[in-house]
UniProtKB/TrEMBL annotation:
<dbReference type="InterPro" id="IPR005117">
    <property type="entry name" value="NiRdtase/SiRdtase_haem-b_fer"/>
</dbReference>
<dbReference type="InterPro" id="IPR045854">
    <property type="entry name" value="NO2/SO3_Rdtase_4Fe4S_sf"/>
</dbReference>
<dbReference type="GO" id="GO:0046872">
    <property type="term" value="F:metal ion binding"/>
</dbReference>
<dbReference type="Pfam" id="PF03460">
    <property type="entry name" value="NIR_SIR_ferr"/>
</dbReference>
<dbReference type="GO" id="GO:0051539">
    <property type="term" value="F:4 iron, 4 sulfur cluster binding"/>
</dbReference>
<feature type="domain" description="Nitrite/Sulfite reductase ferredoxin-like">
    <location>
        <begin position="89"/>
        <end position="146"/>
    </location>
</feature>
<keyword id="KW-0408">Iron</keyword>
<dbReference type="GO" id="GO:0016491">
    <property type="term" value="F:oxidoreductase activity"/>
</dbReference>
<dbReference type="InterPro" id="IPR036136">
    <property type="entry name" value="Nit/Sulf_reduc_fer-like_dom_sf"/>
</dbReference>
<dbReference type="InterPro" id="IPR051329">
    <property type="entry name" value="NIR_SIR_4Fe-4S"/>
</dbReference>
<keyword id="KW-0349">Heme</keyword>
<keyword id="KW-0479">Metal-binding</keyword>
<keyword id="KW-0004">4Fe-4S</keyword>
<keyword id="KW-0411">Iron-sulfur</keyword>
<protein>
    <recommendedName>
        <fullName>Nitrite/Sulfite reductase ferredoxin-like domain-containing protein</fullName>
    </recommendedName>
</protein>
<keyword id="KW-0560">Oxidoreductase</keyword>
């Protein structure tokens, strides 16, 4: 019998974050059944960094070639009317841009398994995974949470991230190391 990521990662996720992911998974199922208001669900998923996307031409460029997307692309929209099977994007928070080797390994794994293998770096020192399916987001969030990464409050009227100099802590010309302060925030 194949174990789910929830079972495999049991005990590796901070309890509060695990409960939040469980609640989101329940809300996702209720939305699929049509018993959870779409506007409320849109706010719920956006607060967790889950966006709908529109791809008018149904193609993407991977840096070398333009290739068709493996998603339907006909009348897809974004916003509260996002169609269920539309490709989406997940914003992943990386406080002050600090990533451990273990976190990088999980990021690479989920990029290859759930996306098109490319992690996009944002101006706020976060990552974005494009071309994900909304049904995969609870698993994605659990796998990220197991190594101390969250998508919590990656969108909306919230502190999306705390940024710092990429050389903080190793630059000989810095007045002091800001990393413990950035981490505390």
């Amino acid at each position: 019998m194949t174990r789910t990521w929830k079972e495999k990662l049991s005990g590796q996720i901070e309890p509060e974050l695990g409960r939040e992911i469980d609640i989101f998974e329940t809300q996702l199922e209720l939305r699929r059944r049509g018993t959870f208001d779409e506007k409320v669900f849109a706010e719920t998923r956006l607060r967790r960094g889950i966006y709908g996307q529109r791809y008018d031409i149904g193609k993407r460029h991977d840096g070398i070639l333009t290739q068709p997307l493996n998603f339907p692309s006909g009348d897809l929209t974004k916003g509260p009317e996002t169609m269920w099977d539309a490709p989406g994007m997940l914003r992943i928070k990386i406080p002050f841009g600090k990533v451990t080797p273990g976190q990088m390994e999980v990021l690479a794994d989920v990029a290859g398994e759930y996306s098109h293998g490319v992690l996009h770096v944002t101006t706020r020192q976060d990552f974005q995974l494009h071309y994900i399916h909304i049904d995969d987001t609870p698993e994605l969030m659990r796998r990220l949470a197991s190594v101390g990464i969250t998508t919590r409050e990656a969108c909306g009227n919230s502190v999306r991230n705390v940024t710092a100099c990429p050389l903080a802590g190793i630059c000989s010309g810095e007045s002091f190391d800001v990393t413990p302060y950035a981490g505390a925030l």
